[in-house]
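Structure ticket #2291
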Amino acid sequence: MLRVPTVSAKPGMVLALPIYHPRRHDTMLLKAGIALDARSISRLAEIRLRDMWIRYPGVEFAREYICPSVFEAQASLTWQVGRALEAVSQGAYARLEYGEYRAAIAGVLTTLLARPGAAVFIQELVGREEPLLRHASNVCLISMLMGLKLNDYLVAERTRLGANAARDVTSLGVGAMLHDIGMLRLDPAVVQRWNQSLDESDPQWRRHATIGFELVKDQIGPAAAAGVLHHHQKFDGTGFPRRQVRGVPEGEGVRGSDIHVFARIIAVADLYDRLRWAPGAPEGEAPTPPVRVLRRMQSEPFRRWIDPMVFKALLSVVPAYAPGTMVTLSNGRTGVVVEWFPDDPCRPTVQVIADPSRHVSGTRGGERFILRRDPSLSVARAEEQDVAEDNFYPQTPGEFDLRLASKAIGNSAASEAYAA
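Resolution: structure written out below.
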């Protein structure tokens, strides 16, 4: 299977996965196995479908990462998110169906656990036309994926709970789903001003966190509600809302492990998605490539804002170059990403293929470039953008290795238990 931009689609290409409507996420437009024709391609372009998965000889590897059941679960989740947003937008006394949300989250988690390899690719079902729905859906899925990777960290951070309860990320998914629900109660002028300026110091815009918390606090669990209230807290203590302290009118910043770990996870997912899909960007504008977003998150001021452990988890679930993505290397060769490494995100393995817009059958797998073994090579273009300056590499061994960091946490916990 190969991920192909809609602008590069040609008649005769056969869909490897179904296509869902980008604005009616519960509506399947085309089934897997259908051969595209000029009319269907034109229609898909009209509705601004960004890309699709086609069958392509020689790149069967992608089946490990791309799973229809995962995409169907995500479509179902997106539909549930849409219901939640619609309920709140209809009135001040809307009832949130917490049980249904938990069930939807649990269904997605079951699917992801059954196909962990497929969890590395997030299909963006909704585009700029529905920004709040797209953002809520993406943040929800990314947060859950990170939560599943942070097993030992959750146990270490949620010490009042037993290990199994600490690892349960269902409430994390619910909190992430509803994290921006308060935006629906802001004056539209405030939201428009935020979209144009992205000024996080705006006190009117900041109210969305506390408004959202007041909407959900009596209807969802406390851990999920904490995610809604504190998803704009920053690891260095400069976030909001500030903690009320007697004698300190402006309040006190909440920092580090004092921030609920679910809120820290949602904060990273929220930042990633906002950098990828800039609020207020013109309709039809391409999102920022993942590699550029991940690089920016390591620069100031972002790196001070996020939990370093959670950022490692992000790298383990959001590839800088996702499998199946067409890229051009610094040596001028064009190919598809066939393997990726979270501990060295910008050095994937790339397999050379023929131009899929001109040749879709009879091609066998071509030469492979393993960038980890050849530091002289790098990815120069991805998602039809120049990314040569966006690549980043570990400066020390294990810098991005989540498994190594998790092992260290486990060893530390075992030492403390033994000492006690």
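Closing remark: The first helix runs from residue 38 to 46.
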